[in-house]
Amino acid sequence: MVTEHQQKRWIKEGRGQGYLKDYKPWITVRDVSSKGRSHRVFGHTTKRTHHLLSDLELAIFLLLDWNPLITDIREQFPLPLNTTLEISEEAQISHPKVKDALQTITSSFYVNSQSTNQPSFVIRTKYTNSLQDERIVEKLELERRYWKSTDTPWYILTEKEIPSVVLNNIKWLYPAMRQSNTEMYDRLNDYIHIFTQYPELDLITLSKKMDQAYNLTIGTSLAELRELLAQRYFIFDITKDYKKIKASEIKLGNFEIWEEIRHVSNQ
């Protein structure tokens, strides 16, 4: 439950306002009970810590943050209370309320992208079994009607929409996305040569061969390749299990992205 006093205080604090690193989510992990699992995760798109209230939110966030077309991700995005109250009265659906305190409706993610067809859209995450609850469906209808009134595309995503291979790849790459070792840039030609020399070897086998060839500790080359892939110096088909990709399937990334990485690293 969020009291009316708390909501007024949150508005003064700037919650639900701002963009990129300056955005403050309406609800943080400190504001919710211990039910389920919540996460505080650094966002590479926004350069700030995101507050995610479930494993499903984490999964979708990772997919969004990996997508190069996404330009901003605002989680726990609040809808204006006065407007949703009007919608609830018009739809004859009771507005979320705890005791006498009206509750602000939030959307899981408000997303901006470089896509000309869909420069912004909203995602509501829900586990499949929760959609059997009539009251939850009613609250979703209020949310849907609000975003329809603003001509903003709105989607419900469940655990069934998360491609497991893509998610596992991103989970493997994600820890290396924050690293910025400029020395790796200077080794690109070495890796290109090795990829050309052993095109049919999978990533794991190739990494072991490199460790042996250069007398490195087992796992060193795989860690370096993970960083190069995470930083997108090299790219591969994210829908294919990283453990099964072959050297011939690893391609050079975008030169402009390399230069941006080097610029940030040198600041």
TrEMBL record:
It comes from the Bacteria. This is TnsA endonuclease N-terminal domain-containing protein. Residues 161-238 form the TnsA endonuclease C-terminal domain. SUPFAM superfamilies: Restriction endonuclease-like, Winged helix' DNA-binding domain. Residues 67-159 form the TnsA endonuclease N-terminal domain. Pfam families: Tn7_Tnp_TnsA_C, Tn7_TnsA-like_N. GO terms for molecular function: nucleic acid binding. InterPro entries: Restrct_endonuc-II-like, TnsA_C, TnsA_N, tRNA_endonuc-like_dom_sf, WH-like_DNA-bd_sf, WH_DNA-bd_sf.
